């Protein structure tokens, strides 16, 4: 029984090879087919480019928003863990509270808001990229934000996060309540304005 199946398989293989040689199938494609494919691909990419551009701007906004949100979560958790007041403030040089939020910000443990003496620097965040802007509008101060040892915040307010491109401007918010928790808000973003 095995010998018959082996012979029949070899016969089929010979028949396929013979048929392939006799019909002389073409392998590959012509220059006209290649040009046609390139033209169709370029038309589709031209139509899809604005959508990709919008997605890239939205991705940059998402990344910056997550960067702010993770900073707020980190500061709150450090205030609870260390049982001290933790401050986030804008910082141009990464050592003192100065400059604008676009220049970067620092997270530090201090006993007083205005004095950085005996403050422990926890993290330094670098300046924003070109086309990005960040503003903090708080109840007591636009220069800093604090968390108490119980995890609550000394003020409520919101970060306004803007991404500018040549064709569009997108704005999201990170709102902070006095409980110390932040939440991302994408609603009513067209009604706000960026300074840059």
Any chance you could write out the topology, listing elements then pairs?
Blueprint: H1 2-23, H2 31-82, E1 86-90, E2 105-109, E3 120-125, E4 132-138, E5 144-147, E6 157-164, E7 169-176, E8 182-185
Antiparallel strand pairs: 1-2, 1-5, 2-3, 4-6, 6-7, 7-8
Order of the strands making up the biggest sheet: 3-2-1-5
> How many strand units?
8
The number of domains is 1
- Arithmetic mean pLDDT: 81
> Given the C-alpha coordinates, what overall shape results?
elongated
- Taken as a percent bin, the fraction of beta residues is 15-25%
For the record, what is the CATH homologous superfamily label? minor pseudopilin epsh domain
CATH class: Alpha Beta
Overview of the molecule:
With 196 residues, this protein is of the alpha+beta class. The chain has a single domain, classed as minor pseudopilin epsh fold (3-Layer(bab) Sandwich), CATH 3.55.40.10. The protein has helices at 2-23, 31-82; strands at residues 86-90, 105-109, 120-125, 132-138, 144-147, 157-164, 169-176, 182-185. A hairpin with a 5-residue loop joins strand 7 (169-176) and strand 8 (182-185). The mean pLDDT is 81.
Keywords:
196 residues; 2 helices; 4-stranded antiparallel sheet; minor pseudopilin epsh fold; alpha+beta; 8 strands; elongated
Care to give the gist of this entry?
This protein has 196 residues and is an alpha+beta fold. The chain has helices spanning 2-23, 31-82; strands at residues 86-90, 105-109, 120-125, 132-138, 144-147, 157-164, 169-176, 182-185.
């Amino acid at each position: 029984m095995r010998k018959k199946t082996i012979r029949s398989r070899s016969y089929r293989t010979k028949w396929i090879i013979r048929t392939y040689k006799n019909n002389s199938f073409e392998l590959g494609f012509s220059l006209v087919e290649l040009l046609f494919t390139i033209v169709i691909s370029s038309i589709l990419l031209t139509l899809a480019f604005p959508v990709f551009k919008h997605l890239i701007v939205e991705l940059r906004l998402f990344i910056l928003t997550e960067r702010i949100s993770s900073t707020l979560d980190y500061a709150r958790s450090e205030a609870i863990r260390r049982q001290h007041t933790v401050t986030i403030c804008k910082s141009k040089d990464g050592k003192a509270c100065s400059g604008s939020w676009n220049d970067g910000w620092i997270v530090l443990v201090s006993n007083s808001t205005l004095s950085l003496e005996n403050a422990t620097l926890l993290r330094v965040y670098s300046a924003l990229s070109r086309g990005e802007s960040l503003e903090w509008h708080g109840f007591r101060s636009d220069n800093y934000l604090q968390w108490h040892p119980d995890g609550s915040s000394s003020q409520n307010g919101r970060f306004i996060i803007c991404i500018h491109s040549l064709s569009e401007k997108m704005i999201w918010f990170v709102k902070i309540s006095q409980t110390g928790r932040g939440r991302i808000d994408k609603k009513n973003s067209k009604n706000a304005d960026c300074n840059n």
